TrEMBL record:
The name this protein goes by in its record: Dolichyl-phosphate-mannose-protein mannosyltransferase
Top-level taxon in the UniProt lineage: Bacteria
Source organism of the structure: Tenacibaculum platacis
UniProtKB keywords: Membrane, Transmembrane, Transmembrane helix
Membrane-spanning ranges: 25-45, 88-112, 119-140, 168-198, 205-222, 399-416, 428-447, 453-471
Coiled-coil ranges per UniProt: none
Length: 477
């Protein structure tokens, strides 16, 4: 047969039904129930932010909003089908998070043969992560994106071990949803392609299968462009990408000498004229990191937007998208011509921010917008939380996050220095997880300032797992 019979599916199911795994699974379900009840009592309504309204509006109208991908709005629509109660979002996100975590946790235990102490340590630190728990009750794409990434990683490591048809199909479905939820996953197809090419040594038909992730990415790209063109009459894939690129690139403005006349592109020349009217302090690391360029009305990005809107006579959203296109060209020009300055004043400072511990917010109240009131049938104007506790763990996180980075790097050093031996298949799984981790970090540094507790959640599982694997190998020696 083309695909191997997934003989280990039976052995894995048998493994899960063994007494030890059954007790662990029951204990974790009990822990999830405890966390669920705690969140329901302390945070009876979800946390929201300025972007929440865009996601809800797209869910209500089924129209892409021009700022964010449509994928998370699909999930809001799905939860809304079951109940108009806004709490359905938390319940749905929490359940999906549980499924994704349990799938990953028991898969890595099975493949890396984790002993009890490393397994319990990994499970507790993963399941009880304050940032992950907070995001399950947050109307933002983070929880769904994190859960889908976990499912992507889980299906990927199973494909590496045993390329089963059902698992491959599920992997492709997860890949499609993940990219649509957040474009940070646009590099995922590349890693999927590598996985299938590795199998092509044994069966050449896997070369054809390796084209599917590329096809998925291509379909998403052109379908999104077509939808935006029909909806807003703008040729574009992601306006946000252009805005973010410009925000990052203008960090070099105080450190270069560039006259507008030196820029050939007319739009970029005009943008540069507007941008250079502002004082150098506008482009300090503080403002670049906070993305003030993109969102504050009195900063250069919005001034360029208002100028383009006046000249084009477009609606705000259309003008924002058109400006994103022009910012993409301008930002690319700056980076291409001043790569050393770009590395020094944006890339390197952003690298350092990997190791910061950003606070989980102290949410004190929920004030529903009129849009939320209508969509979720809310009958109040404000709810003040009587209790909240996740933000109180920030002092612990301030110590734990840097410590985890130290343990991560030390584990990599120990692994290679002491030449801890994996079985052949374990080596491939370990390398895949490590490559995914490094690739995600690299793309995150380039794409956007790392200024929030949410942005690195998708790689927390690997950052935590690698020291656990090394500890496990040490205990098994």
């Amino acid at each position: 047969m083309f695909f191997k019979k997934f003989h280990s599916s039976d052995s894995f199911i048998s493994y899960l039904t063994e007494k030890n795994q059954k007790l662990e699974l029951l204990a974790m379900i009990a822990l999830y129930i405890l966390v669920f009840v705690s969140i329901q009592i302390t945070y009876p309504y979800p946390a929201v932010t300025a972007d929440t309204g865009n996601y809800i509006l797209s869910a209500k109208t089924s129209i892409i909003n021009g700022y964010r991908p449509m994928g998370y709005s699909w999930f809001i629509q799905l939860f809304h089908l079951f109940s108009e109660n806004i709490k359905a979002i938390f319940i749905g996100q929490f359940i999906i998070n549980c499924i994704a975590q349990l799938s990953f946790i028991f898969s890595v235990k099975y493949f890396f043969q984790l002993k009890n102490i490393p397994f319990y340590l990994f499970s507790l630190l993963f399941v009880l992560s304050p940032s992950i728990i907070f995001c399950t009750n947050y109307i933002m794409s983070d929880s769904i994106f994190n859960s889908l990434t976990l499912l992507y990683l889980t299906t990927a490591i199973w494909i590496i071990k045993h390329p089963n048809l059902v698992n491959i199909i599920f992997h492709f479905i997860v890949l499609y949803l993940t990219i649509n939820v957040r474009y940070a996953a646009l590099f995922y197809p590349i890693l999927s392609i590598v996985i299938f090419i590795l199998h092509s040594k044994k069966n050449k038909l896997f070369i054809a299968i390796a084209l599917v992730p590329l096809l998925i990415g291509t379909i998403i790209y052109f379908d999104t462009k077509s939808t935006i063109k029909k909806t807003y009459d703008i040729e574009q894939f992601s306006a946000f990408g252009g805005w973010a690129l410009a925000n990052n690139a203008v960090s070099i403005i105080p450190h270069i000498y560039l006259e507008p006349e030196e820029i050939e592109n007319e739009d970029s020349r005009l943008i540069h004229k507007i941008i250079t009217r502002f004082p150098d302090s506008t482009y300090s690391h503080k403002h670049i990191n906070a993305t003030d360029f993109m969102w504050k009305k009195n900063f250069p990005g919005k001034k360029v937007l208002y100028h383009i809107q006046r000249e084009s006579k477009l609606r705000y959203t259309q003008a924002w998208m058109l400006t994103g296109n022009k910012f993409k060209n301008y930002g690319s020009f700056l980076i291409k011509n001043y790569p050393i300055e770009y590395f020094k004043y944006y890339i390197f400072p952003n690298c350092k921010q990997l190791f910061y511990s950003y606070k989980v917010p102290n949410v004190k109240k929920y004030v529903p917008s009129n849009l939320s009131k209508g969509y979720f049938n809310l009958q109040f104007d404000r709810y003040d939380y009587k209790y909240s506790f996740l933000h109180k763990l920030n002092p612990v996180r301030k110590i734990f996050i840097p410590l985890l980075w130290i343990l991560f790097f030390c584990s990599i050093i120990v692994l290679f220095k002491k030449k801890l031996i994996f079985k052949n298949e374990q080596t491939l799984l370990f390398l895949f997880l490590l490559i995914f981790f490094l690739t995600y970090v690299g793309f995150s540094i380039i794409a956007h300032p790392i200024n929030n507790f949410r942005y690195l959640i998708p790689i927390y599982c690997i950052q935590l797992l690698i020291p656990i694997i090394v500890l496990n190998k040490t205990l098994r020696k």
